Amino acid sequence: MTKSELKEELTKLSVDARRVIEANDGYRTGLLVDMESKSDGSIEVLLDDQLEVELEKVITECEASLDDLKKTVQAHLWANCGLAEMTAAFEEAEKACEYAYSIVINSINCKAYEMHLTLLEKLIKESVEVLLHWEPWIPQSEKTDFQKQLRELKAAKNKLEPRKGEFARALRIAEDAKATEHAGNRVEPPVRVTPVVKIKPTKLPTFSSNKRDFHCWKKDWASLQRQGEPTGSVEVKKIQLLNSVDEKIIKELRLSTHSTANDMFRVLENRYGNKTTIAMEIIEELETIPPVKGNQLRKVIKLIQTMEKALTDLTDLENIGGIKNPLVIKSIECKLPESVKKDWHL
User: Fold this and answer.
1) Mean pLDDT across the chain
2) What pTM value is reported for the model?
3) Rounded CA gap, 307 and 282, in Å?
């Protein structure tokens, strides 16, 4: 089978495995619902220990089978495709780096050196892309070696950058000498080099299970991810999303078993993105705030800020109906000191 066929089959099997796990979870939930309907509600409903073991066994065996299959496909893809592609990319970049060090510093080689550095930067970027493409399939021991090679390549490239100044000085000296030869002792003023400002890449925001922050985080993450990864690579987007979600959430929702970032967002949306539930929690939080007296200035300010934040969040959720409820408004009024209530009614 070809590389694309193997990946396609593995994706299909991953989807099937996820369906088995979801069906198993659904079956367990159905049993509990059925038992609760027959119970008088006086005691907590629990499944039989033997049944719990069997249900957990299904998930364990399914995940183990999928893991074995992934290892088999990984070994085949890496040995027959990935290793050669990775080695070739890194060897080209290393050869270009060695050649750059061998270029003699003089005025003639100035432009050639700059062009070669541009080529080296392109080759290093291609090595990074190849590494990201094959990262899920690289054995851990070899992954560490390739990551080390990449760091060494980048370090070598950074050491080559200052040589551009030496080439520029050699070129300037040659041009000054030529100008002096034609214009007597007149010396051109030194060329002022404009400093280059390097902007640090923006770090993608992290989600840590706060439902109230979910939709804002999702919007900001998607915007920054598109700017930082304009190629739209599905595999890169999945890896970046896994790195932007709390480890506990990844384990609890089994996000790593999903094939794409869109599938993971679907699961996260189901757990944390219900706008109605979030809006209700915001209203409940407002109603639980204790009343504030007029002489408690800091608490008054904090209450106002909390209400403004709640209104902003509800507006973002497109669900401000709850806060317009007369009972909710009355509840909020009761928390205000008398001096503020006058302005509130005005």
Assistant:
1) 78
2) 0.38
3) 10
